[in-house]
Amino acid sequence: MIFEQIVTGGCQSYLVACEASRAAVLIDPELSQIDRYLGLAHQQGVTIR
User: Fold this and answer.
1) Mind listing the pLDDT tens digit for each residue in 24-36?
2) Residue 19 burial class via C-beta count within 10 angstroms: exposed 0-12, middle 13-18, buried 19 and up
3) What pairs with residue 5 in β-bridges?
4) pTM to 2 decimals?
C-alpha cells in the first residue's frame, strides 16, 4: 500500500494506492492542487482512478 499525506493550506489530502494494481484514489482533494496530485501520482508510478 502507498499512502501519502498532502498538506495544502487548511486541508489535508491523501493519496492511497495499491502497489500491485498501481491504482490510486485521492481522499479530500482540493481542486486548486490538481497538478500537484497528478505530479505525485506520476512520481509514485500510479494512476488516479
Assistant:
1) 999 999 999 999 9
2) exposed
3) 14
4) 0.87
